[in-house]
Amino acid sequence: MPTTVNDIYQQVAKIFMEDVGFSAGTGMITDSMFFTSLGDVMSDFLSRTGCIKKLVNIPISFGQSTYVEPEVVCEVQAASQNQTFIYRDSGFFLDSANPQWTSEFDQPAKWREDENLPRRIQLTPTPNVDGWQVRVSLPQQGYGTISSTSAAVDFDIVADVGVQGYGTISAAPNGAAYLEVLNQGYGTIADMVSSTGNLQMISAVTPFSQTQTYLLNYLELIPDSFTLAISYGVAAKLFSADSESKDIQRSKYCQSRYQFMLSLVGSVMNEVSFEEGEEP
Amino acid sequence: MPSATVGQLDTRVLGRIDNNSTLYGQSERYVYYNEAQRFLNIITGFLQTTVPVPGGAVANRRWYDTPAPIIIPLKVQFSGTYLHKSSLTRIGQTNPTWTQDTSANLGYPPASWVPVGLTKFGLHPANSIGGGEILVTGIQDPVLFTTSNPNQVLPFPNEYLEAMEDLSAFSIQLKEGFPLFQAANMLYQKFMARMGTESRWRNLSMPVFPIERQSTR
Q1: Which of A66, A155, A236, B3 is deepest in the core (most CB within 10 A)?
Q2: How many CA atoms lie less than 13 Å away from B189 in the CB half-sphere?
Q3: Residues of B numbered 53-92 whose beta carbons fall under 8 angstroms of chain A's beta carbons: which are they?
Q4: Domain residues for B115?
Q5: How confident is the model at residue A191, as a pLDDT?
Q6: What is the rounded distance in angstroms from the CA atom of residue B86 to the CA atom of residue A67?
């Protein structure tokens, strides 16, 4: 049974002796404080462990070297362009190796994130073609079936509780795809971006929604076995908040349990993600 | 052979908390038993299993989800052969076109697997002919204890009953005021000291216990 926001809520509320819930109890801690802390801790856990990764495609455009990464992307681990691996580089090395690198046009071979605004990825050489996108016709409004084409892949469609979405998305054309919808599944499917011809990033991600406000929601992205980290992280924040419940010692203890989980999952990721003998 | 039950664990933990089943309700206690078994399982990697990817290989598909109940994938087999584990960077450097390579254009079946976080992995090359069996070996999520089944057997060897008792009895007392909670911290230190020798993860360092002594003056 997947862990819900309510599971964490109940556990943390009982730690604070608020068995009937925060807002219904003494009110020293509010539900709003809980939800804010939960969102913060989930984002922190996912960005620091990098244990959940997704494939994210961005359409490339002729003459445009810098692209904005989607909100959920927190660290790009690998990238490919037109389904060919491109190397990570840095401004310093690019400047040193080829001072004119910003004025070259060709198929991108390298990428960098440094010396840019946050969540920007820059390709070099600058793309000399437009990437390929599937435009969904406006009247379809996301209600119908996207019929197509090749092997099934994952899509991210975030909807509120009870919203089941309309229609079936059966597959994506030409490799892994990133689908972005507007208005929680009811609106227009803006674009489908194929990995063919475009930039594909494999990156650690954070939740779609920074604020978790529905108790019945499943805890987004966090594997069930790691949810204990979230409970302690939230409790650490609430114990350190300025309120009648403030307790620095217990906050420190909860923080240490949270930190240990970060360290544990970090060790797991070091062993799982790398080849034997490869430097992390 | 594990034989200790969660009911026995419950009896032992209650003994540590003055049999106070009013302050520490049954459902609350079970939350901590489940937390303890998950925590112990991640550190030790005790519960490992091999399960197939549902549906097997799909023609020309390279990305697959880690099948439930595996939470940490460790090995992958394709059609009875263990695959070499690579990484996203290493395979990109050695095979720049790996996200379009297939067994048809390379001439050999999947030979490597690439973890993508804990929940996905890629095969290289993708199998051009669907239907091959993909088996994933890894650490699995334990079956959770439920209050309706106190006879459920703990999944660990019996000698870990005491470790689970220590951790559960300590963690549940977090709701107590600090002095009482502090007094119970030896249980946690004992648990973590044991885990220091049982961890399967090479780089894991065990923390120094953080609770500071409060002056009694």
Answers
A1: A236
A2: 10
A3: 58-61, 63, 65, 71-74, 85-92
A4: 48-140
A5: 53
A6: 29
